[in-house]
């Protein structure tokens, strides 16, 4: 229990620190899906799927805000900036509100709507409207008051028939009345009425379904869900048809002297006389084919939110110039697979369901991140490859990258350019033959290079399920009929290779198969006490650690094969669970967890991703859970973990989730061949620094001793991997004093040594 409490305190401390600095975490978010815009006199605030950015129109400065800064990973549905209070209010589909104080960047999570005793599917926040310090929050159940001064909620208005819950799309104030557009009509009430919680105080003045309402000049306008703009006639207390749009309105707002109405394909801008002075159509933006979501204006600049192309700007007077003002990032947040090298990170967006079905085929491209920023390769340039799901970089040439598709085969890239799409027509790969009417379906999921530079891949739903593209360009196939019950019904997951050259492949129905071509030997690990002891035959990931153990992740838990060498010596391969003590009770580590990935870091720790429970970091043996990161205690935007990979040089751990990519700045780097690159950071250690000192560039099992200038020993450790940490204490007892400290590093055999210095300033 003490260990569990300690882990909680550590994670809580980390969580509190995330919003204050980005020392441990970094976000790599896409800002392309704009859900809402809000404008002040000098700044545009844009809400993307689950992150924000703002741009100062005077200075051009762009600021991004994401889960690392304290936002939730949930989907943002509305954003509003109050110039009076200098606060930005963010509304979510699940009812969460986050109030950002722009003066200091602090954030307040407001969960009152989430906690309301209402069905969760009607808590979406649709719109914010400020009046006399009160924000009226339009939700799918009604209207809620929020006081920007006290940051407290006020009354809730259920204004449907007999007080029913109805979806409010927008509210506005006009001539002493508050008007609410809803899916069951337009209602109004006197804003001075102290009893607006009584639905009887709300008068129905327009029937039908309405998507927006706003005051413009001295008049009141509303638009129904069919896209017909109406003007309020006070003489008859009703709304009269004014003009019809070609499509339903997605967004209507009055800003300065203009009324802007946005549809999927057009933006209509009216002046104060309600004359249409500019119409922007998607086909005018030739650089992309955008889908509009919202629009607003500051001065002469029109800001356009799009579904997949970020924020586009144009001027009111110009009809030809469009600029993209979106912070650069990956193409989208739902990243399915990643691959990190020492210099770059690759990401792809294809996917498949739990049954490996890819037929909801995507047409997204590829993204690459390095020191120069993001390079996005659109779908139009990937030679028609759909549903890209796995990346492998040639370890001997980082400019040669292969990407497996769960539908189109294997894409080869050279120098960041797609060059060849291998499929059944030009390679040894095979298409599915037993499913009628599905042609050119070539499924490649797992891939791995061997020491000779040959690329091994698995080819699902065919008899010859193991393929190799040899270093000389020749293809070779191996039948899996000797080991699989029905190879044409077998889908493969990830694969790996061990020190003996044995390939380990996960399958959805037959557990894990091992294959070594040197003697054409197959062996299988599946469920059942006598056939491998997996908890289920649906295995998803295999990883070999530095102790030559095979870690196997299934849809129902974790198993370990004690030694991969047993493939060559034993007739049967049997795995075991990891048994840990929790509250003095024996428990199975990750019992019945759907494991999506396992990655071994430089210290032989295991990073384990799950389908709905976040990320676990466990010790080399698995007996200690060092971290369990979730959306509740870390910047993870989602607990759905698609992929994990590690930069072996820096130790940065990249985590791809269903709602964004983040990284954790770990310290477990790969061991070096010598001590020539040993270094210490930070150096000097300044008074405001709260982290640890890292000594990197180490040999494995190097001995590190730290002494003060007089030779008194204050720290000693044997390295596992390429980096160790020092908490700047004398053996954990007390913080060492200011001064210069000597770091003595020696190889395990004592032949190679290195001396470094670090200055501590208290």
From TrEMBL:
Gene3D superfamilies in UniProt: YVTN repeat-like/Quinoprotein amine dehydrogenase
This protein's UniProt keywords: Signal
InterPro entries: PorZ_N, Quinoprotein_ADH-like_sf, Secre_tail, WD40/YVTN_repeat-like_dom_sf
Domain PorZ N-terminal beta-propeller: start-end pairs: 44-203
Keyword Signal (UniProt): yes
Signal peptide annotation: 1-19
Coiled coil: none
Protein's name in the database: T9SS type A sorting domain-containing protein
Organism: Flavobacterium xylosi
């Amino acid at each position: 229990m003490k260990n569990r409490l300690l882990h909680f305190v550590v994670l809580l401390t980390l969580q509190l620190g995330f919003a204050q600095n980005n020392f441990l975490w970094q976000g790599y978010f896409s800002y392309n899906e704009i859900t809402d815009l809000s404008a002040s006199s000098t700044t545009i605030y844009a809400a993307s799927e689950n992150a924000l950015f703002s741009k100062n129109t005077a200075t051009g400065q762009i600021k991004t805000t994401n889960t690392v800064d304290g936002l939730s990973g949930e989907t943002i549905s509305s954003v509003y900036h109050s110039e009076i209070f200098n606060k930005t209010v963010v509304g979510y589909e699940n009812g969460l509100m986050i109030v950002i104080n722009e003066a200091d960047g602090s954030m307040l999570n407001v969960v009152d709507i989430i906690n309301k005793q209402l069905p969760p599917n009607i808590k979406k926040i649709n719109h914010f409207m400020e009046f006399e310090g009160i924000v009226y929050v339009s939700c799918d159940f009604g209207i809620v008051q929020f006081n920007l001064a006290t940051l407290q909620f006020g009354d809730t208005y259920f204004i449907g028939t007999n007080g029913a819950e109805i979806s409010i799309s927008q509210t506005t104030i006009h001539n002493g009345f508050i008007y609410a557009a809803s899916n069951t009509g337009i209602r109004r009430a006197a804003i001075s009425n102290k009893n607006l919680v009584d639905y009887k105080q709300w008068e129905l003045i327009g029937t039908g379904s309405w998507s927006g309402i706003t005051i413009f000049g001295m008049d009141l306008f509303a638009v129904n869900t069919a896209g017909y703009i109406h003007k309020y006639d006070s003489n008859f207390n009703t709304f009269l048809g004014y003009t019809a749009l070609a499509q339903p309105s997605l967004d209507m707002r009055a800003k300065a002297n203009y009324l802007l109405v946005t549809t999927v394909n057009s933006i209509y801008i009216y002046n104060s006389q309600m004359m249409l002075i500019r119409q922007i159509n998607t086909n005018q933006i030739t650089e992309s084919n955008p889908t509009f979501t919202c629009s607003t204006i500051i001065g002469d600049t029109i800001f356009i939110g799009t579904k997949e192309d970020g924020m586009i700007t144009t001027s009111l007077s110009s009809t030809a110039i469009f600029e993209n003002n979106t912070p650069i990032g990956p193409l989208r947040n739902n990243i399915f697979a990643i691959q990190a090298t020492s210099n770059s990170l690759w990401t792809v967006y294809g996917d498949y369901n739990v049954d490996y079905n890819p037929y909801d085929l995507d047409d997204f491209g590829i993204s690459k991140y390095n020191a120069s920023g993001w390079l996005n390769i659109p779908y139009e340039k990937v030679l028609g490859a759909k549903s890209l799901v796995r990346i492998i970089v040639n370890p001997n040439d980082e400019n040669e990258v292969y990407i497996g598709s769960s539908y189109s085969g294997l894409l080869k890239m050279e120098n960041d350019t797609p060059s060849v799409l291998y499929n059944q027509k030009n390679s040894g790969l095979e298409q599915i033959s037993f499913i009628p009417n599905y042609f050119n379906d070539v499924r490649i999921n797992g891939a791995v290079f061997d020491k000779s530079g040959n690329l091994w891949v698995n080819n699902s739903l065919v008899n010859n399920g193991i393929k190799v593209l040899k270093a000389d360009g020749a293809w070779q196939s191996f039948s899996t009929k000797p080991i699989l019950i029905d190879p044409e019904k077998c889908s493969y997951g990830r694969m790996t290779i061990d020190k003996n050259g044995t390939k380990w492949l996960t399958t959805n129905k037959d557990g894990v198969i091992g294959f070594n071509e040197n003697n054409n030997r197959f062996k299988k690990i599946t469920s059942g006490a006598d056939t491998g002891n997996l908890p289920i035959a649906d295995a998803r990931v295999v990883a070999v650690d530095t102790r030559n153990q095979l870690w196997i992740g299934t849809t129902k838990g974790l198993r370990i094969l004690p030694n991969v060498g047993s493939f060559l010596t034993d007739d049967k391969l049997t795995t075991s669970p990891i048994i840990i003590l929790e509250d003095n009770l024996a428990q199975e580590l990750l019992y019945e967890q759907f494991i999506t990935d396992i990655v071994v870091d430089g210290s032989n720790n295991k990073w384990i991703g799950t389908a709905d429970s976040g990320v676990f970091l466990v010790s080399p043996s698995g007996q200690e859970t060092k971290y369990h990161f979730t959306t509740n205690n870390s910047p993870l935007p989602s607990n759905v973990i698609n992929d994990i990979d590690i930069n072996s040089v820096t130790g940065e751990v990249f985590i791809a989730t269903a709602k964004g990519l983040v990284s954790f700045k770990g310290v477990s780097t790969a061991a070096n061949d010598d001590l020539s690159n040993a270094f210490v950071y930070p150096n000097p250690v300044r008074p405001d620094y709260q982290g640890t000192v890292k000594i990197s560039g180490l040999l494995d099992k190097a001995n590190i001793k730290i002494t003060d200038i007089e030779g008194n020993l204050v720290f000693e450790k044997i390295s596992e991997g390429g980096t160790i940490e020092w908490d700047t204490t004398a053996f954990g007892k007390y913080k060492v004093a200011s001064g210069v400290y000597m770091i003595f590093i020696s190889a395990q055999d004592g032949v190679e040594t290195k001396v470094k210095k670090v200055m501590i300033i208290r």
